[in-house]
Write the structure tokens for this entry.
Amino acid sequence: MKYPLAFERLVSCFNRFQGIGRKTSERLVFDMLSRWDSEAIEEFSHALSGLRQGVMTCPECRTHIETLPCPFCSDERKNAKLLCVVASSKDVYAIDTTNLFPGTFYVLGSLLSPLDERGVDSMDMPLLKKRVHSGIEEVIFALDSSLEGDATAAYLRNELAPLSLKMSRLATGVPVGTSLDFVDRGTLSRALSGRYQL
Ligand SMILES: [Zn+2]
């Protein structure tokens, strides 16, 4: 027997999340139907439809923010000569909460696939280079300790090499194969202060 169409539609939506398979998606929808009242379902639907209007991307650092001016780019206490390059907005928020990084950010959007350099387009290299040209003296790559993170750091180092910058990468404390968002605050703090030059 097939599931009702409306059920099936929602299952397909959940199934789009990375790491959420078909079975988990079905479980989520069953859970919603059996435990959520209509008010909770309404709230969920409102939260979803408000996501696009309520979240924008900063045209300079590409972090997901609520409104312009961007709180990360417009903070005058930040050192505008220091740029931290991260894979996603989530990393910007994680690093910012440590209060240990005094500079500005750039979000790549994705990491490079080491085999075919897929992902270069989504990084918007022209924008990154423009940022770097606007007075940046040091770039820190805060990328995952993974094949993709290594490939991305190597690619960016080559691309930015002609600009004679100081370039460094987080290393100490971030275990190999670990995504930045699973790293606790203390580890991230140590990694930020223990970065090594490229
Ligand atoms: Zn910004």
Residues 58, 60-61, 63, 70, 72-73 surround zinc ion (CB under 6 Å). The mean pLDDT is 88. The chain has two domains: 5-54, 57-197.
